[in-house]
Amino acid sequence: MHSGDQKSCGSVEDLDRIFCKQVEKTNELRDSLNSFLEMVNIQLVVVENIDALLHDTAYDRDIGRSVQSDIADRFRRLTRAGITVVVTNHITYWRGYPAPALGAFWASQIKNRFYVEKQSDDSDVRSVSTMNEVGEGTRRVQFRIGDNGLEPVRNS
User: Fold this and answer.
1) pTM above 0.85?
2) Is the domain of 49 the same as that of 123?
3) Considering only CA atoms, which of 115, 109, 104 is closest in space to residue 142?
């Protein structure tokens, strides 16, 4: 990763600024999010599979909402500090439409949502749908992942 063309890969110093931490408890996530506010030159925080960490919060209305709200507030503090926050959350279809695994309250805490899904098991077409807090509706774009990256799917 550190060898090769520095222009396309970035510098070693850039790679040294990547920080990765696995958390298994809500308090560890809280502490980590707080520590990111104190780090210098941090621009992006990615929280992968938030639903795995907070899955119990979807079933306990009072305590669950409190925990979800607290975590969302910490994300908002990061964004107000100029840090981009990307959070992945599984989507369920058990009601016949896509819904976040952590429930409607969690969805209401997120300003902009992107749903990325594969159209079917026998197709390489995927779609990304966007929704925002204003409720301007859903926009959907289809694409394929090809040798050169993302490729648009044209309707014929």
Assistant:
1) no
2) no
3) 115
User: 118 is in which domain, residue-wise?
Assistant: 112-156
Shared domain check, 144 and 99 = no
Tens-digit pLDDT profile for residues 66-92: 999 999 999 999 999 999 899 988 888
| E strands present in 90-138 | 91-92, 99-100, 112-118, 126-132
Structure tokens at 54: 């907070």
| Helix, strand, coil percent values for the chain (each to nearest 5) | 35, 25, 40
Q: Confidence band (pLDDT; 50, 70, 90) for 101?
A: confident
How far apart CA 112 and CA 41 sit, in angstroms, is: 24
Is residue 117 domain-shared with residue 149, that is, in the same domain? yes
